[in-house]
Amino acid sequence: MSEDCALIVCEDGYVLPGRAWGARGRTVGEAVFSTGMTGYQETLTDPSYRRQIVVQTAPHIGNTGINDEDSESRQVWVAGYVVRDPSPRASNWRTSGELEELLRDQGIVGIRDVDTRALTRHLREVGSLRAGIFSGDALPEGANQWPVPGYVTDVLVSLVTQVPPMVGTALVHEVSTDQSYTIEPTEMEPRATIVALDLGMKAGSPRCLAERGGRVHVLPASASLDDVLSYRPDGVFLSNGPGDPETATHEVDLARALLTRRIPVFGICLGHQILGRALGFGTYKLAYGHRGVNQPVKDLTSGRIDITAHNHGFAVDMPLDGACQAPADADFGRVEASHVSLNDGVVEGIRCLDVPALSVQFHPEAAAGPHDGGYLFDRFFALMETHRA
Ligand SMILES: NC(=O)CC[C@H](N)C(=O)O
Predict the structure, then answer these.
(1) Which one in 51, 238, 263, 272 has a CA-CA gap of 20 to 30 Å to 170?
(2) What is the b/e burial string over 47-74, where b = at least 16 CB atoms within 10 angstroms of the residue's CB?
(3) Which of 177, 308, 176, 334 is nearest to 243 (CA)?
(4) Bridge partners (DSSP) listed for residue 286
(5) Residues 144-187 pLDDT 10s
(6) Is position 365 annotated as part of the catalytic site?
(7) Ordered DSSP codes for 130-189
(8) β-sheet bridge partners, residue 80
(9) What is the structure's pLDDT at 187?
(10) Of 386, 381, 373, 367, nearest to 188 (Cα)?
(11) What is the spatial distance between Cα 165 and Cα 10, in angstroms, rounded to a whole number?
């Protein structure tokens, strides 16, 4: 193997060789694959990827470098990055830097020249796994040969299994803003006052709200009900975010209090899972999740099929065959699944019939991805308007 060798090692002992890329050293996290052909900058800066090692199935990554517009937050959040064939040179009119420089500057350990197709097939067969990327000084003696000797793999697997599994892991507090701030509507008078709870929010969501006339007060995830109510919101937005939704007890209690007060609620991804739990449904871990910008979802209300952006490893466990009583509280009335994934039948949206709340598991804000789901922001505004009237 080459001097600059690197390894990706999964907790079940599956190992693939590659070459060091980005920062050198060692990183551990949950290995997940993303099928997006575009949008690597948005993926890297999506806080929902906290503590995950992202494998890109698209073989060419970095072709357009990085630019000053496409980041979804203030930093790269992925724990590690696995690619097949990074572009040796970025070329695009918006390029402000090379991707590898960004990874190196932010200390993100990556690996290139990996057989990402084999790794993805492995993750599809056995499910998401904890994994580690090792390069430079983090490679133990004997690792520089292929196949890697069993005793070396054993040492690396023992390091990988030190990271706790994603089930039961709370990460929102690691990524949420610690300061509140306000985003003004884009080129129009405010139409609605919205509180957005930042659970690891991508920049695209408040942008979509502001473009429709929302004055968006972004609050830390730890905000209390009184903090939220002090803004006299027309509606509350629950953002995307990392970790297991079962750990989001504070946010679930907050959502329940909002439902009780009939304040319109709109949730995306983790926000959707929180609304689901607030209504009394469980959440569960998917085998390998949905990640990418090319996922077909059916809107069960209209029958329309959208191609949507996804990034979720968990899902809400609720019936798909029509409305039922919200299990948590009779006061919340009836609720139904509003969207379904056409790949695997996973629930992708919730519609409340008696309280003003809706949510989607996918990403209508796109960034990256198609804008097919943009109408959901319009539904939230319609809900706020009807409710105000
Ligand atoms: N993008 C998100 O909000 C992800 C939600 C949750 N952490 C999951 O993996 O399912």
Answers:
(1) 263
(2) bbbbbbbbbbbbeebbbbbbeeebbbbe
(3) 176
(4) none
(5) 899 999 999 999 999 999 999 999 999 999 999 999 999 999 98
(6) yes
(7) EEEEEEGGGSPTT-SSSSPPHHHHHHHHHHHTTSPPSTT-B-HHHHS-SS-EEE--SSS-
(8) 53, 109
(9) 86
(10) 381
(11) 13
CATH number of the 5-160 domain: 3.50.30.20
Q: What is the separation of C-alpha 312 from the centre of its chain, rounded to a whole number of angstroms?
A: 6
CA of 243 to the centre of ligand 1 (A): 6
Classify 172-388 by CATH class.
alpha beta
> Residues 290-340: pLDDT tens digits?
999 999 999 999 999 999 999 999 999 999 999 999 999 999 999 999 999
Question: Which ligand 1 atom sits closest to the C-alpha of 200?
Answer: 3
Sequence ranges of the domains in the chain: 5-160, 172-388
Residues 6+ apart with CB under 8 A from 88: none
Kindly state the average pLDDT of the residues 248-256.
Answer: 98
The reply, when asked if residue 383 is annotated as ligand binding, is no
H helices, E strands: number in the chain? 10, 20
Contacts (Cβ under 8 Å, ≥6 apart) of 110? 20, 21, 22, 23, 80, 81, 82, 83, 100, 103, 133
CA nearest neighbour of 64 among 45, 33, 40, 85: 40
Q: Which atom of ligand 1 is nearest to the CA of 243?
A: 7
CA-based nearest residue to 236, from 210, 218, 213: 218
ipTM > 0.90 for the complex: yes
Q: Angle CA(279)–CA(283)–CA(285) in degrees, nearest 5?
A: 165
Cα distances (angstroms) measured from residue 16 to each of 8, 52, 83, 272: 5, 18, 12, 36
Only one residue has tokens 């996922």, namely: 295
Q: Ligand 1: does its nearest atom lie under 6 Å from the Cβ of 314?
A: yes
